[in-house]
Amino acid sequence: MASSSGSSKNDFRRKWDKDEFENLAQKRLTEEREKEKRDGKLAPPVKRELLRHRDYKVDLESKLGKTIVITKTTPQAEMGGYYCNVCDCVVKDSINFLDHINGKKHQRNLGMSMRVERSSLDQVKKRFEVNKKKLEEKQKEYDFEERMKELREEEEKAKAYKKEKQKERKRRAEDDVDFEEDDEMAAVMGFSGFGSSKKSH
């Protein structure tokens, strides 16, 4: 299988005879086809769709913290996690579930190959036009006058908040002055202070 003859004596790498392996592969394929013909099960080649992008959002949050009973009596069904209806399997967490639904096995069960359709120049140009129109619509939606009105309202709210804070500070300062006057009056009358529970000797 491997020929040890090399151009230099110091080359220790294995040299593979490609023709020999190609012949072995062809031989194996013909044997498999003959076996299928003998068994009477000639399976037609499967034509799969090209891979396309998902037109729906994968919902991972709606069933968080909820329990759904799966009527399978397998050890996997008891462990909990995300259940795939297409492949009839349970995946432990959301990251592995996303890997699973984007993976080869799941896509094959959906009837898709992992090949992507090549886009033509016209399709790319149309896509650019669609994206450009979306961008222009967003810019039209942005109304300058409306934004200025929102900013004015925010400024008015901030001013009202500041005024309220200043009024509150004034009330506190007046209350502090009243307490100081009460302390002075108590000192004039010979009391050490009102509301004190300490006894003086």
Layout of helices and strands, plus pairs?
Elements lengths: L1 E2 L11 E2 L1 H22 L9 E3 L23 H5 L2 E3 L4 E3 L2 H8 L2 H6 L2 E5 L4 H21 L2 H46 L12
Parallel strand pairs: 3-6
Antiparallel strand pairs: 1-2, 4-5
Summarize the structure in words:
The protein has a two-stranded antiparallel sheet. It has a two-stranded parallel sheet with strand order 3-6. It is built from 6 helices and 6 strands; from the N terminus they run E-E-H-E-H-E-E-H-H-E-H-H. Among the domains are: 60-115, no CATH class; 119-176. With 201 residues, the protein is mainly alpha-helical. Helices cover 54% and strands 9% of the residues. A hairpin with a 4-residue loop joins strand 4 (82-84) and strand 5. Residues 28-46, 146-174 have a biased composition (Basic and acidic residues). It comes from Takifugu rubripes (Japanese pufferfish). Keywords: DNA-binding, Metal-binding, Nucleus, Zinc, Zinc-finger. It is found in: Nucleus.
Q: What's a concise summary of this model?
A:
Keywords: DNA-binding, Metal-binding, Nucleus, Zinc, Zinc-finger. The chain is mostly helical and 201 residues long.
Helical amount among residues, as a percent range?
A: 40-55%
Largest sheet: 2 strands, antiparallel
Distance between the termini: 113 Å
Low-confidence stretches: none
Main-sheet strand order equals 1-2
Provide the β-strand percentage band.
5-15%
| SSE-based structural type | mainly alpha
- Please identify the oligomeric state: single chain
What's the helix-strand series?
Answer: EEHEHEEHHEHH
* Mean pLDDT across residues: 78
Report the radius of gyration as a whole number of Å.
40 Å
Per DSSP E runs of 2 or more residues, the count of β-strands stands at 6
Global morphology: elongated
- Number of helices in the DSSP assignment: 6
GO molecular function, one term: zinc ion binding
Biased composition (Basic and acidic residues): 28-46, 146-174
Subunit structure: Component of the spliceosome B complex.
Region (Disordered): 27-46, 146-181
